[in-house]
Amino acid sequence: MRPHGRASVSVSNPRAFGICDRCGFLYNHVNLKWQYDWAGASLINKRILVCDQCLDVPQEQLRAIVVPADPMPIINARIQDYVTAESNYQTTSAPTVYDLTTGIPIPSTTNLITQDNQQLTTQPYGQPVGLEQGAVMPLNGTTHYNVQLNPLSVTSAGSTVISVTFSSPHGLQTNDQISVEGLSNNLANGFYSVTVTTATAFTYQTYSAIPSGGLLTGKTNMVTALVGLPYGYTQIPQVGP
């Protein structure tokens, strides 16, 4: 017995040579193995003979997933009538309206009802996060925004309602929006919808209660604004925990 490449030669017991179909080295034919791989739910012979070093483990990702049989159906089953028993639903409470710019139909309002038939959403107040006063759009059609407001006073009575007064008519209407920066309490800064009380005064509502006192400083900057609102809302949504 003597080596011949990676095969062995025996004068008394000669064996055929064979070339590995992958690496091309010489082996004894009897030592080469068929390469199998998954195809569907069974292994198939790829019809190539390879050596031990080139023999691959069948790839499981090629193996089909065998789904078990469905369970036996129940004869004359009686199930819960979920359609009428479940009161957690979302409905459109008004006819469809169309966006004036795009013409895309949108629902005018949407009611979200919990399982105990309570309104999931109410009219919120407060400031949205992620907005900057410097990015206020200055013009929408013929309506101007980022118009400077010069309040005479900005005060809190110890609640979430902030009162703003002016020495002359401010020209705003209820649900108009403002952006305010530079107040002495940062919780009162941000973007808000206003509620007009008089021609020279309005209020807006914060999420957190502000201690009583004046909030106006020499750095206060209050301008008119316009930010997006969810469908069905007339005021900027409230934020906070």
Structural description of this entry:
This protein is an all-beta fold and 241 residues long. The protein folds into three domains: 2-62, no CATH class; 82-113, no CATH class; 133-225, Elongation Factor Tu (Ef-tu), domain 3. It has one helix and 20 strands. The strands form seven sheets. Strands 13-20-16-17-18-15-14-19 form an eight-stranded antiparallel beta sheet, with no helix packed on it. The chain has a two-stranded antiparallel ribbon with strand order 1-2. It is elongated, with a radius of gyration of 38 Å. The mean pLDDT is 82.
Features:
241 residues; mainly beta; Elongation Factor Tu (Ef-tu), domain 3; 3 domains; 8-stranded antiparallel β-sheet
Task: Please sum up the structure shown.
With 241 residues, the protein is mainly beta. It is 2% helix and 34% strand.
What's the SSE blueprint?
Blueprint: E1 2-4, E2 7-9, E3 17-19, E4 26-28, E5 33-39, E6 42-50, H1 82-85, E7 89-92, E8 96-98, E9 105-107, E10 110-113, E11 139-140, E12 143-144, E13 148-149, E14 153-156, E15 161-165, E16 177-181, E17 190-198, E18 201-205, E19 213-214, E20 221-225
Antiparallel strand pairs: 1-2, 3-4, 5-6, 7-10, 8-9, 11-12, 13-20, 14-15, 14-19, 15-18, 16-17, 16-20, 17-18
Query: Any guess at the CATH architecture of the largest domain?
Result: Beta Barrel
Mean pLDDT: 82
What do we call the CATH topology of the largest domain? Elongation Factor Tu (Ef-tu), domain 3
Shape verdict: elongated
Residues in helix, %:
under 10%
Give me the Rg, rounded: 38 Å
Order of helices and strands: EEEEEEHEEEEEEEEEEEEEE
Q: Class of the largest domain, according to the CATH hierarchy? A: Mainly Beta
In terms of DSSP E residues, the strand content is: 25-35%
Low-confidence stretches: none
The neighbouring-strand order within the major sheet is: 13-20-16-17-18-15-14-19
Taking the sheet with the most strands, its summary is: 8 strands, antiparallel
